[in-house]
Amino acid sequence: MTALPLSARLCLWLDAVRSGTAGPDDLAAAVRGDAPRSLVVGLPAQSPDEGAVELLRLPALLRGPLSLALPAPGDLVGLAGPPALNRAALETGEAVLVGDVALLPEDDARTVVWRAVPAARAPYVDERETATALRLALQDVTARLVELDVAAWRPEVPDLLLNLRHRPPLPLPPGVDPRRRETLERAVLCLEIVDLAGGDDGGAVSAYEAQRRRDALADLDRAARHALVGACTGRAAG
């Protein structure tokens, strides 16, 4: 099952700490999840010999506008460079931008290490526009997948669409408004559909139909990533 991307979780909880609805300990626990530790390395505020710092110190060490990046090849949503960051973020598939610093998650054994690298200020992504685009994309792609008989090759997908209101809650901080929560839940659902339906070409199917499936899922993936980026733009002042 596709979960809320780790960088989206950090972005939302860091914003909650800034707005006063959560504390640094809450942020560290929520982002860490099942991993024993989450560490940050390379922050500008760190001295060269300081090494890694605990995630709970992050709110005190970074200032500036807060946003999410969920890039894919050909679609660097949430990023404005430099090229080294774009390449690194494409490898991880995600990043958190705080002012002129980007944080990239890396697994190190059972520890998540957030590596800080220089970043250009992120371009603005409108929450309302991307949420609307996602709703329309979900309707359109659902119709296209039904036409392609999605139930015959991925019966889990119709089940997901029918049970949108009966899914486990996302690990969101206090204070997330209902509209924003709905967008986050819909985007995660769509990423899960893409993950399930894109796993294979559904057995015996023509190359033309396989390409139509891939095109539909690519449209849904793009809309879901953009909606997540829009919904995770920081509300609180940096």
Structure characterization notes:
There is one protein chain. The chain is of the alpha+beta class. The protein folds into two domains: 6-123, no CATH class; 127-230, no CATH class. 48% of the residues lie in helices and 13% in strands. It contains nine helices and six strands, in the order ααββαβαβββααααα. The protein has helices at residues 6-19, 24-32, 58-61, 83-92, 127-147, 150-153, 156-162, 178-197, 207-231, and strands at 37-41, 53-54, 66-69, 95-98, 101-108, 111-118. A six-stranded mixed beta sheet has the order 2-1-6-5-4-3, with helices on both faces. It is globular, with a radius of gyration of 19 Å. The mean pLDDT is 87.
What would the keywords be for this entry?
238 residues, alpha+beta, six-stranded mixed β-sheet
